[in-house]
Structures
1.
Amino acid sequence: MRVEIWSDIACPWCYIGKARFEKGLAAFAHRDDVEVVHRSFELDPGRAKGDTAPVLEMLAKKYGRTPDEARAMEAHVASNAHSEGLGYRTEGRDHGNTFDIHRLLHLAKARGRQGELLDLAYRANFAEERSVFDTDTLVALGVEAGLDETEVRAVLADETAYADDVRQDEREAAELGADGVPFFVLDRRYGVSGGRPAEVFTQALEQAWKGRALQPLGTGTDVDAETCGPDGCEVPGA
Amino acid sequence: MRVEIWSDIACPWCYIGKARFEKGLAAFAHRDDVEVVHRSFELDPGRAKGDTAPVLEMLAKKYGRTPDEARAMEAHVASNAHSEGLGYRTEGRDHGNTFDIHRLLHLAKARGRQGELLDLAYRANFAEERSVFDTDTLVALGVEAGLDETEVRAVLADETAYADDVRQDEREAAELGADGVPFFVLDRRYGVSGGRPAEVFTQALEQAWKGRALQPLGTGTDVDAETCGPDGCEVPGA
């Protein structure tokens, strides 16, 4: 079974939802038969590269919240993160364009290090408040994840590298009806939206597992017609 | 959308069903969004490599048919092939173990030449009655398909090369409930068994296309809860 998770590094519910999903997955009997794939989704694709702003200020400005409301929202999210055992600092975090880190996550996927880079990037952004919008930090994270520094720098310097992979993920998210993240897709058949409690994920995995049976189409009356098997070929009327 | 087709080169309904599927696909509006993948299935995996027998004799011996009955079965299949514009010779064709050609098809997949090799192998076996159980013929087919001769020979000489890929395909066929081929799986959601008329495939493709919508799980009452989107993060009660 395959679970694809659309998310953004800048998305706190993705950070928290990933931990809850993993807890839900650990409680699922067939967890060893589940392949998890990260998919790209940008919360703020229209923001120029390098244009960063403190999160609290951005929340206040973009969504018309007072500074106190923005701080209360962050505190609420932080308490959810802490409940999952995740670090979350509510001050000093920057918001920005995440296209480069998504490109880097696709390089990491090609090199078998995507899970490592994803965890490091989330922790850097939310727990350590290192800026994931800064090239030197991205290079350091890539190297920590086990990637080759020269290759990481080359990908970051070439804006077309893995750009199509990011855009393709985003097109698929739109086709699947996802307008927010995290968005979990099980076998391209079931969708779970949001950083739900772990039990929701366990239940969704169980339902998707049961639902794996194929629906037969075009069978008519003779389901063996015009097939060959170990016992020979079915020939109508023979 | 992805269509996986389990088949065997030794299977006449696979040869005919592939042509019917392609005709059905050509009539499907979203044909350019369909990716087709070949999957391995052996009709006679227990037969030793190199142990070949004339098809008519095998049909008579294995399934207890008289020579006339075997000939009538082949004639029926041949008339179906001819209706699809495919060559089909009913005499002189050999039956045997197809493990090596499936391994070679996986090499061809890795080199982007699987479709070419598949068509050449079917034609060799059914229309030209070249023995696809013979190493020199397999090498010639591989080269005709655009593969490197040295690499083809190396794969054929090493019985472990791509063997896991063939076995993995066969395990998945069993998991999906396929005990005969051709077996068509659309988006791992719908199954069509047998070399059905082209219209059946067009209809199945249309139904699978409509059925692509995800079934939401675990939504509860607030479907936007604990997600982030371009308009910010949903915070319960905020």
2.
Amino acid sequence: MTLDALINSLKDIETITDPHQVAKLSQDYHTFSPVLVPKLAGKVGDIVVRPAHEQEVIQVAAICAAHRVPVTVRGAGTGNYGQCVPLHGGVILDTTKLQKILWVKPGVARVETGVKLAALDKKAREIGWEMRMEPSTYRTATIGGFVAGGSGGIGSVQYGLLGDRGNLLALRVVTLESEPRVIELRGDDVQKVNHAWGINGIITEVEVPLGPAYPWAEVIVTFDNFITAAQFGKALANADGMIKKLVTIFASPIPQYFHPLHSYIPQGTHPAFLILAETSLESLPGLVQQYGGKITYQKPAEEVGKGLNLAEFTWNHTTLHARNVDNSITYLQSIIPANQDLQLVADLYHYFGDEVMIHLEFIRVNGAVVPAALQLVRYSTEERLNEIIRYHEAKGVLIANPHTYIIEDGGRKVIDPEQLKFKEMVDPYGLMNPGKSKVLEFKAQKRS
Amino acid sequence: MTLDALINSLKDIETITDPHQVAKLSQDYHTFSPVLVPKLAGKVGDIVVRPAHEQEVIQVAAICAAHRVPVTVRGAGTGNYGQCVPLHGGVILDTTKLQKILWVKPGVARVETGVKLAALDKKAREIGWEMRMEPSTYRTATIGGFVAGGSGGIGSVQYGLLGDRGNLLALRVVTLESEPRVIELRGDDVQKVNHAWGINGIITEVEVPLGPAYPWAEVIVTFDNFITAAQFGKALANADGMIKKLVTIFASPIPQYFHPLHSYIPQGTHPAFLILAETSLESLPGLVQQYGGKITYQKPAEEVGKGLNLAEFTWNHTTLHARNVDNSITYLQSIIPANQDLQLVADLYHYFGDEVMIHLEFIRVNGAVVPAALQLVRYSTEERLNEIIRYHEAKGVLIANPHTYIIEDGGRKVIDPEQLKFKEMVDPYGLMNPGKSKVLEFKAQKRS
């Protein structure tokens, strides 16, 4: 099918063919990885298609299926694994025009896939609710992109990860068939599409539970010793009576990359960045004192939205700030096993020194508080990076390797058999985001 | 000081001297314990005084201090340790007229000590909030009584125990001095009075954080195997994405004591009683299926307040229902250590059989889900009861022994040194609830 024929058949649906624009919309933030950059260089779609509602999505799906055109779905492109970089050209299906907030009720909302997380928050807060968890890119990221390519973030210290039972209520997907179907997945069935990198149908609507929108305060606490800071973070994350949505610990010298915050973080100290319900604020000084910390910055809830926003220095925004200062820096994503957590963190801290600067994000995993880490790595070679990864893995750390565009090499290690079964049904021609999965490539080769 | 002189000096403050009334107001629910009943038999106050506001509390305190009259403070008398049974007569200070709700704001409320928990809930729910945790006696229990003599309950699976940092924001207490002072305790200082059984000043006001008032659904799930039921309870309690305020597991034959629920619990099955946010309900069947359970009863949130109320079959209401059928039954209160929990539960279940019927309440302790237990015990002799307790303790179970009226023999084992220091300041004559503490009795004897 020629590009012109495709455009003609799309009729009123918005298309973009300007090569600069198409190249831009074929990108995400895999540029954080010096390993991925060369591997994904030059990978661009042939055309960007921007449906405005589900009916247009169905039209695009039908045409692509009939003509066997690859389809790579994207939200805002804030992922870091090259999730929405098309390996085999074809159509980039940009979902950002699907931005209706369908309804918001106490504790639950349903929205179109392209709704920005911040937009849903704004609407939900009118009635006292908000997203349970969000990546640090919540201002631009879409909810469909978060479901397809994300896993957790700010709020995960309370609610765990997006894939945990109860954190995602329903998904509506369009299949990539000549006569596309629209399928509503509810309950455990949402896992057939959650975190599937857009290979399992085109998400058009998302139903999520909401969390109460506490008045949130932001706090920086500094410590002279990194391990003490980490212990404080763990104790706070475990304090069941204190409501928090962020407990982040940075080893010095990471804060040097946060220019606007220098006056709150004395050089050489190790800060905790916290977001706490204002009702829990009065209980903080007792805990801080117990670990010998100092509260150096406090922003009350009424100033939220004004001035500095601590959340935007955490999770993968940390890496962004560091790379803005020194673009030779890259990162890891990992979960430290709960049974040995802080001793192992101490060992890694001393072993690698400044080569691997530790950035902890406390989260809940199956009911227990564990330190996730997005370590900043001073990159030298791919070999050394792999050596660092292997060292961590040998110690029992789960590395969700952000230096691969293969699903199985990232956090999940395998694709859920349920997802594969669903894949065969909704994408019989293997057109969705092709090339991102080992097992699917293997199957495709066997067929051909 | 004669009773008449006391009454005269109290002027307009309500007093009760009718012996039947005084005897009734000298009681609590220690009658659940066949060991406590004979020990506390005949222990009554000389008079009940019912101040209507703090100024009257101050007057009572001044007179009692000046004349060295013992003072035993009570709320609704729903405790089970004889906390408000006066060992040395004197004044029963009944706080139930202090029932002003001072203010309720999003996430926090301040009330007078005698406010019933259910009354605060009703008010707070008007703006979308409610108590974070409550005993099963919430319809009658007062908040001051809960603070002085309680420790947790329905909601503790989410927020931990009342004593956990952040679950109690401030207390206002009147000292027992000839010129009483009014002291406001905030932050960690609230621990000087929390769970002190009324020996550390008279609480007049309480400030508590609130939790979001989710639309709550009630569910019964039955299992053929008790340990499977317990494993299900643990998995649900650990499911970070599912919002719950009650996860209770009963070993058969406990449900035989719940007459109104018989049709939902097939004989010989082991039920889970759950209170879940309605948004989490859709995620329940997947988990239930995983453990081979059956959902036999479901009450949607809109029917809350109508018909059966599952919460009132849990925590110590379980014991109440059992004793209504068979008053030879008594109980234990315990916490199973987290590291071995369900294996140990299985061992105890098989070892004691029907003599100790296991009733689990999952709660959070320092960030981790652990099974608390309020086992029903078929009572034979005090010796056998002690043997049962010792067996549990030898296995590492913490027994908060409800068969003693001595603070140190209950759940806390020792009185916090901070509480003792505060005691000396606020009750210099040792008049408050005398006889309930080993260390204080010892000190009193040394002085005399």
